[in-house]
Amino acid sequence: PLTTVLEPDELLVEIEVPALPEGTRAAFVEQARTHGDFAIAGAAVVLAPGRGAAIALLGGGATVARASAAERAVLAGASPLEAARLAVVGVDGDYRRALLTELVRRAVAAALP
Q1: How far apart are CA 62 and CA 52, in angstroms?
Q2: Nearest-5° Cα angle at 45, 37 to 72
Q3: 102 — phi, psi (to 5°)?
Q4: pTM of the prediction?
Q5: Distance CA 64, CA 5 (A)
Q6: C-alpha dihedral sign at 23, 53, 43, 84
Q7: How far apart are CA 21 and CA 36, in angstroms?
Q8: Cα-atom radius of gyration of the chain, to the nearest Å?
Q9: What is the pLDDT along the chain (113 residues), one digit of tens a residue?
Q10: CA nearest 64: which of 54, 74, 49?
C-alpha cells in the first residue's frame, strides 16, 4: 500500500489514457481521514451506454478490485444501492464494507445519466 513497483532507478514519464466513447459517464469518489491525506477507500465507475460498465474498489483489499457482479447489475438496471451491495461482497470488516457500499452507491449514482 502507498508504494509503486518502480525500482529506484526508474522514472514514470508518460501515461496514455484512451478517449472514452461518446456518451460515456464516469465518477470517482474517495474517503480520507482528513482532506489531502491518502484515501482509505474509494470507488471508480465508468458507464458506456451500449458498451459496458466498469466498477473498481479501492481499499477493499490488498489491491484494487473489479466489481463484476455490480457492473452486470448496473447494466441490467439495478439501483445504485443494489449495485453497491453486490460490489462489496467479500470485503472484510463491517466498517470497510459499509464505507465502500456508500462510496460505490455515490459513484454509480453520479455516473448514471
Answers
A1: 26
A2: 140
A3: -65, -40
A4: 0.85
A5: 14
A6: positive
A7: 31
A8: 15
A9: 667 888 999 998 999 999 999 999 999 999 999 988 889 999 999 999 888 999 999 999 888 999 999 999 999 999 999 999 999 999 999 999 999 999 999 999 999 98
A10: 54
